[in-house]
Fold this sequence. Notes:
Radius of gyration of chain B: 21 Å
Number of strands of chain A: 2
Number of helices of chain A: 10
Strand order of the largest sheet of chain A: 1-2
Largest sheet of chain A: 2 strands, antiparallel
Distance between the termini of chain A: 19 Å
Strand content of chain B: 25-35%
Strand order of the largest sheet of chain B: 10-11-12-13-17
Largest sheet of chain B: 5 strands, mixed
Oligomer: heterodimer
Amino acid sequence: MLLGLGGLLLAGTALADEPAMGDPVAGKKIAGQCRTCHGIDGYAKIPIAPHIGGEPASYLRNQLTAFRDGTRTHEMMSVVAKMLTDEQIEDVAAWYAYPIAMATLTADPSGAPEACTACHGVDGIALIEEAPNLTGETNIYIDTQLKAFRLGKRTHEVMSAVAADMTDAEIRAAADWYADVKLEITVP
Amino acid sequence: MKNLILMTAVGALITSSALAQSANVPSNLEKLSGFKTTGVTDFTFIEQSGDYADGIKRTLERITLPDGFKIELYAVVPDARHMAVGPQGIVTIVGTRKDKVWSVTDRNKDRVADEVKDFAPSLTFSIPNGPCFSKDGFLYIAEQNRVLLFPAAEFFYESPDVAAFNLVAQGELIPAEQESFNHTARVCKLGPDGKIYISLGQPFNVAPPENLEVNTEWGIGGMIRMNTDGTGREVYTYGIRNSVGHDFHPATGDLWFTDNQVDGMGDDIPPGELNHQTAMGQHFGHPWYGGGDTRTNEYAGQEVPVDVIMPAVDTIAHAADLGMTFYTGKQFPAEYKNAIFSAQHGSWNRTTPVGARVMVTIIDDEGNATMKPFAEGWIDENGEYLGRPVDVAQLRDGSILVSDDLAGAIYRISYSK
């Protein structure tokens, strides 16, 4: 419960410190094309899509831009992002940054994966702007992303190095840890 | 006596070195392969009544069907994907795109499941989307990059420790660097030749040129088949984008399969596909064709280097035709004999959503196929999905089951005059 509140506070702080540039009301309309997979409030409807409600707007903007530019690729997202203008990306990022993501951790926190917690938190609510929340993501999603970093299919100055040294078993254990934390997304 | 026969069958399996010896065996699989206990004793049981089930039942009141048919909730099954009905009718095994496989049991045979619990809870699964049974009761589960084999699964599934073996060991279905999460819902079925047929989607919207060689070699963007001891693997089908449903015609034995087509070319092109394969090695057009006879932008103007089989049915664009089964039961009217029941998952990137329904395809004496809606109503007036059908399977009484991974449910459709 304490950890859950911590996540709530951090999410609130992030929003207050760096207000999103985009217009969340316009973004919600654009999100009509996202909701079949990611849900209108960012709680995903299908396992292959991550929960994006309450992520930092900057993270969402960076990922959409990377999909559009081809520096990150995904069969569906590359198609979707190609059709978005800069302004639309800012707006839809502002919309999905607006809800609050809250984690409820029931496991013993000492079991959290050491390589991940400094940025992604013990409960998966990210502690820095640049990192996404991992709370409640499908374990196979996290597993797939870590393997993509390890293979170089996806690159990031920190994550590429972290994943490079992880075994398949360590990747799955980290994925299972965050997948098992309960996520709630609420729209204020 | 029954147990003795089962144990003999299992004993024969263990002596097969192809199954017993494989690299990279996870510890619990090793234990289960040796008939040892893993210490895992807890099942996860899914509540079958209450508010959640009632909500699904309310949705089903909206679903329209031809006269005489009705649809009812059969089971609450989280993330329900492809289904395999046990040959003795004891259990239905249901895959997911997560890490669980569910066993669904209707103990009192009132045609509503009484118990849903996880199958083989001591094993770590990765996208165990595709279960299939052989006629003699061997269960196969096709995962992201592994295929497991469970002898006498209808007998063993009641225990957490179920005998389990590698058919294709971890990392040997496709090269690890080709692994993805999307387009990795594998489907398996046993063919009339006794071989197992497994679809392997390719992970891109349009397969890039640099992948075509590895795809052709491994059968990625295709269908592979092998003997049920894991030997004799070969590529049976080429030129698939992402097939998530196949079955064999009960009379001709031909392979029919659905294939999801290219996105980003507009709301109304290219069409989805239902395909009919008549010989090994046939090519169905991807990546030169994006669906039907629509050429992809990426390969526009290029000479197509293969002979391409065009679809038996062009389906509505982006509806996402997934699981399918031929109907061989006696419960439904005669027109449905040897018809295909298939699921459309529903579109994700079309201005107005289409799909989210069960289709039926009638094949005439000349082999011409005609598809029409059979059960629909899962898209509400706001264009929101109330359910997304994934797969269709037939029960022994001739009714059919439909899985839904959005609602997390299995429905049963039955007929009475």
